[in-house]
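Hello again,

I reread your note about wanting to compare the complex against the isolated chains. To keep things tidy I'm splitting this into two emails, and this first one only covers the full assembly. Below are the input lines as submitted, including protein chains and any nucleic acid or small-molecule components. They are followed by the predicted structure of everything together. The single-chain runs will come separately.
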Amino acid sequence: MPTKVIAVANQKGGVGKTTTAVNLAACLAAMDRRVLLFDLDPQANATSGVGLEKTEGASAYRALLGDGGLLEKIQPTAFERLEIIPSEVDLCGADIELARSENYLHRVAGALQPVLQSQRFDVVFVDCPPSLGILTLNAFAAADGLLVPLQCEYYALEGISMLNRIMAQLHGNGVNPRLELLGVVMTMFDSRTKLCQQVVSEVREHFGERVFETMIPRSTRLAEAPSFGKPIIYYDKYSSGAAAYELLAQEVLARLEKPSPQPAEVAIPAPVSDIPTT
Ligand SMILES: Nc1ncnc2c1ncn2[C@@H]1O[C@H](COP(=O)(O)OP(=O)(O)OP(=O)(O)O)[C@@H](O)[C@H]1O
Ligand SMILES: [Mg+2]
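Full-complex prediction:
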């Protein structure tokens, strides 16, 4: 099977993108898959979440600008079969620098080519920053699938129409016609609140089967784990958060390893042309 690249994205901040990227990556690695976690967010939360220090010059920044290769940026973690391309604050400059460079939407896709050709990984998870800026668009242009964490809150669906629009644009203008919505995962679910349940049913109505059955509960253990530099399955194996991410990992694998992916059940609007194709 060729390596699958999954962008974990939502332009809203604090919805559980990094928690999902780190923990899915760790669970899939524990399920014998070779996983690369690509931290594309200058906040570098995924990097610290797997216990790595932020190190100057360690991020993808220079490689994205054509200086050196991405393969050299891959570092091992303390967890078997889980490797990382770390981030650090210099990635902040990438949005501006990349905007000025040629082929600026395909920098991540281009830099990832040798990594994919090396066949070292089964899955690459790209942790995106909370915006639809150039780094995120680059992740979309490089990805096979988009995984969207949605927080169980009133404004959950806000911004999702924007994601749909962007996906339609990437299809329409040929930047990435193969991008699929791999799925939507509800995060910070609290079954005791009526609002949470209402949000979930609204999201299910909108996205149908693309919503993963597994919902990630709100859990203090999940919030604590990053400060110990450990994914939840290593921080507290028997917590509800660990169980949820293990189940989600199984669902993700089932979708990834299906021979032909299901078409997204999302109404995708007609393509508009405000994203340049270069
Ligand atoms: N299921 C959960 N239960 C409790 N806390 C959670 C859960 N998921 C994430 N958190 C906490 O919520 C905060 C935001 O989560 P996270 O960093 O994963 O979101 P994000 O979407 O990556 O944020 P950003 O947009 O800043 O990159 C973090 O402090 C995290 O530990
Ligand atoms: Mg994050």
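For quick reference: Residues 180 and 260 are 11 Å apart (CA to CA).

B.
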